[in-house]
Write a structure and sequence with these properties.
heterodimer; A: 219 residues; mainly alpha; globular; B: 675 residues; two-stranded antiparallel sheet; 3% strand
Chain lengths: 219, 675
């Protein structure tokens, strides 16, 4: 039974990694949001499984929170934003997609290499997935760097948060509930602020391209 | 109430001194309350401050021979009380602060005018805060209290310097002062860090108890020399003095030059003689060499200046150099165990502290009166003011004579004592030093002579001759309060000159504390003759000099009246092509300084513009700059700018690049963890 659940968690982890790569390669904003929603759903499933295995009821609560926030509320908000801003067009990247993917592979190798000694110390059922979670964090970071549109940067940020959450679950059966609630609130507030920011950006430059605000310094 | 009662019982002098500081702070706060009522501040608060200062001087003088007193006040941070201690050394400097501030505050009450930059109430607050911080610096008995007061002193004086902050040049001078003061404060802080020797206890009592090895002791000494040297204006950290003194209002310049520079001397004495109780011989050599370089540099520049307050600022640099040289000599003798001569050198140094405080304060307030009467600082536009401002002129003459080191005034006594202690150097066991030091004594004599030259220039160009501008005829003399302040300071110069035996005798408590030997017994043998060592060797009777000088003056006056004036003939003169004399025929400030500029040419960075013979509108222009700007400060400034520009490259202004920075940092840190 334990082994089966372990395999299940590994499966969800690999789905998570695959989704990270998909997001890195995805050009369309609408699809990007859908992928993000899928990532959230995977996270919910993985958290629930870990909760079942370890009999930790607070993990169910955090799974429910994730479901509510990252699968329902935030994707809905993002969809609304891009509908209102009319930004369904293709994403322009600063580095071309194949190069980004190659960089991503390097990052994954690095992350696995890094996580190896840590996961050997851990006794968690999901210890093998720490490397994947770390790789997910780095890939999301890479996505934030390489995208030039504000919406995709926000999605990169959220996806990074997802992967961090997964890392916490897999390494230590989740953070204390108070911390999780705090983070959830932070993410929600962050989304609201970034939404306002995007509207402002659009109003000012008639575009969501962050290259318009490159004058962040005095000459 | 209880605490103050116990303080009064266990430490009466210290309690009174702290009460005076409290009174100063109260006066300052009253100034803040009545921020715009000019009459109240100038006619009540400043004179009250002056009376309080006099009380401080009296209390401190009474505390000189008394036993050290200590107190702890639960001020500042919890668990870190302020320690205070009043021993002979701090009592003496407290006396100098109080005595000089008495005259300067009196002068200041008549000096500040309506509608000049900062409101009078704020000036009053800053002024009294400045006084209180200086007194507490001297009283502090732990590094924490010392640094707090040191910073408060630097900040309050910075705001006083920039009182007229609407002038860009003054703001620049204030900034330079603040910068140098803070670089120096770092040195002092590090010095205390070395001195506490890893015990974590920053009280001076603990530092005194530590026995540092020669390496750490020297490190502490050099840091102290750097830190206090920046405040005192030791070459090459002197650059702020000639900028800040002209920028500040005159009473403030007088306080800074006469009193504040002395707190740095106090700090250096405290660290090298008291906290690090055994000076090494080469410390003395460094102090001596640095002091002589500073003194020579200061006096040569002073002789070449054409702005009266800059001239006095350079003269202050010279006097600080002399103090440092005297201290170096004392350290040298202490290190070789010749304690009685060390005590003599130290007495000379301390004597000069007081006499410089009086005469430089007197000269600075004198320039203040001239500045108010004529609105001119440039010597080239003054002249003949003795006729229009007799009070200021005659009282300044006292300061000028004292500054030039002429008997029977205070400056002579201290320089004479200093030269006397140089004459004892053949007793040193180091033959190399034996050969060197007579040359050094000759250098001191040269410096004294050049100081005399400078003072002749200062007085002659401002007060003698004919006025160089029309408007000078309307110059008015100083007001009654200003006169009273100047009279007090002039009386101080005179008293220091006429009562050297009594005053030097009072200093023996300090030399006993620092070198183990006091000159009190030797001095007390002759009440009217100053005999530092042995009556067969050298002695000085100020009263004899005074009588002699007075007789000579009287004789000259009588002879001139009797023989010269009586034979006055009124006849058409053979005028030699020189029928009348105008102001433009007089020697100018530039002309007077010209020989010095020629002789000491390598000292200056000079730019000269000489007219050619065929020039129809000839103009002569010369500008002097300080070598140290070009040798030290500008290269450092360029280096900092270049470094900052290299760093500014990081700021690309693109979000993606900033994200990349975080990303690279994250990966690098992770790699570090992995390794």
């Amino acid at each position: 039974m334990q082994g089966m659940f372990g395999q299940l968690i590994n499966l969800f982890a690999s789905v998570l990694l695959l989704l990270s790569f998909a997001m890195l390669a995805q050009r369309r904003v609408v699809t990007l949001i859908d992928l993000f929603m899928l990532q959230g759903a995977t996270l919910v499933a993985a958290t629930t499984v870990v909760g079942v295995v370890t009999h930790q009821p607070h993990l169910y609560l955090s799974a429910a929170l994730t479901l509510l926030l990252k699968v329902a509320l935030i994707p809905w908000l993002l969809h609304r934003v891009i509908r209102q801003l009319n930004v369904r067009w293709d994403v322009e990247t600063l580095i071309n997609i194949p190069t980004t993917l190659l960089l991503g592979i390097v990052l994954v190798i690095f992350a696995f290499n890094l996580a190896l000694p840590i996961s050997q110390l851990s006794s968690s059922v999901a210890r093998g997935t720490l490397g994947i979670a770390l790789a997910g964090v780095l890939l999301s970071f890479l996505m934030m760097i390489t995208r030039s549109k504000a919406v995709s940067q926000v999605i990169g940020f959220l996806s990074m948060e997802n992967c961090l959450f997964f890392a916490a679950t897999s390494a230590t059966y989740g953070m204390p509930l108070v911390v999780e609630l705090g983070i959830a609130l932070d993410v929600l507030v962050g989304i609201l602020i970034l939404g306002v920011f995007m509207f402002q950006l659009r109003e000012r430059f008639d575009s969501l391209d962050i290259r318009h605000i490159e004058k962040l310094k005095e000459d | 109430m209880d605490a103050s009662a116990t303080l009064a019982a266990t430490a009466p002098h210290l309690g009174l001194a702290l009460a005076v500081v409290l009174a100063w702070l109260l006066i300052g706060l009253l100034g803040l309350v009545a921020i715009r009522s000019f009459e109240f501040i100038s006619k009540v608060l400043f004179p009250a401050g002056s009376i309080v200062s006099l009380c401080l001087a009296v209390v401190a003088f009474a505390a000189l021979p008394a036993q050290p007193e200590t107190a702890q006040l639960p001020l500042g941070l919890p668990g870190l009380p302020f320690h205070f201690r009043l021993d002979a050394l701090s009592a003496y400097f407290l006396f100098v602060i109080g005595a000089a501030a008495t005259g300067i505050s009196l002068f200041a009450s008549g000096y500040f005018r309506r509608g000049e930059g900062t409101p009078p109430g704020i000036l009053c607050f800053e002024y009294h805060l400045f006084l209180a911080s200086m007194a507490l610096v001297v009283l502090a008995d732990d590094a924490y209290c010392f640094m707090v007061m040191w910073e408060s002193m630097a900040l309050s004086s910075f705001f006083l310097v920039t009182a007229n902050h609407r002038v860009a040049e003054i703001r620049r001078a204030g900034y330079l002062y603040l910068l140098v003061a803070h670089i120096g404060a770092i040195g002092i802080l590090l010095c205390f860090g070395v001195l506490q020797a890893n015990t974590g206890d920053y009280s001076f009592a603990n530092m005194r108890a530590q026995q540092l090895g020669p390496f750490w002791a020297s490190a502490g000494f050099l840091l102290a020399l750097f830190g206090f040297g920046a405040k005192a204006g030791v070459v090459p950290l002197h650059v702020w003095l000639p900028e800040a003194h002209p920028a500040a209002p005159s009473p403030v310049s007088a306080l800074m030059s006469g009193v504040m520079l002395k707190t740095a001397i106090y700090g250096l004495l405290r660290v090298s003689f008291d906290l690090l109780h055994a000076p090494l011989w080469w410390w003395g050599l460094i102090l001596l060499a640095l002091g002589l370089v500073t003194a020579l540099f200061g006096v040569v520049y002073a002789a070449a200046q054409v702005d009266m307050k800059r001239l006095l600022a350079y003269s202050s640099i010279e006097n600080i150099g002399l103090l440092l040289a005297g201290m170096g000599l004392a350290a040298l003798f202490t290190a070789y165990g010749i304690r009685s001569v060390a005590a003599l050198a130290l007495t000379a140094t301390l004597y000069h502290v007081a006499s410089h405080a009086f005469f430089k304060a007197l000269l600075f307030v004198g320039t203040g009166a001239v500045l108010h009467a004529t609105a001119e600082r440039s010597l080239g536009k003054l002249g003949g003011l003795l006729r229009f401002m007799p009070w200021v002129g005659w009282l300044s003459l006292v300061g000028v004579l004292a500054s030039a080191g002429l008997p029977p005034l205070g400056g002579f006594v201290s320089e004479w004592l200093l030269l006397q202690s140089f004459l004892f150097t053949p007793d040193l066991p180091n033959s190399f030093l034996n050969m060197l030091i007579p040359a050094v004594a000759a250098l001191i004599a040269l410096i004294a002579a050049l100081a005399g030259y400078t003072m002749v220039k200062f007085y002659g160009i401002i007060f003698l001759g004919q006025p160089r501008e029309e408007k000078l005829a309307e110059a008015h003399d100083a007001s009654a309060l200003e006169r009273a302040g100047m009279l007090w300071l002039a009386a101080g110069c005179l008293a220091l000159g006429l009562l050297p035996v009594q005053f030097a005798g009072a200093l023996s408590a300090i030399t006993e504390q620092l070198t183990g030997v006091g000159l009190g017994a030797t001095l007390a043998a002759n009440a009217w003759l100053l005999v530092p060592m042995d009556v067969a060797r050298a002695s000085y009777g100020p009263v004899i000099f005074l009588v002699g000088v007075a007789l000579c003056c009287l004789l000259a006056y009588v002879l001139v009246r009797r023989f010269y004036h009586g034979r006055l003939r009124r006849a058409p003169p053979w005028d030699c092509g020189f029928p009348f004399q105008t102001a433009r025929m007089q020697d100018s400030a530039e002309g007077f300084g010209q020989p010095i500029r020629q002789i000491f040419e390598p000292f200056f960075r000079m730019e000269r513009e000489l007219p050619t013979a065929s020039d129809t509108a000839p103009r002569y222009r010369v500008t002097l700059a300080d070598h140290f700007w070009h040798w030290v400060y500008l290269p450092v400034a360029r280096l900092v700018t270049r470094f900052a520009q290299a760093i500014a490259w990081l700021q690309q202004g693109r979000i993606a690049v900033y994200l990349l920075y975080s990303f690279v940092t994250l990966v690098a840190v992770l790699m570090l963890v992995r390794a």
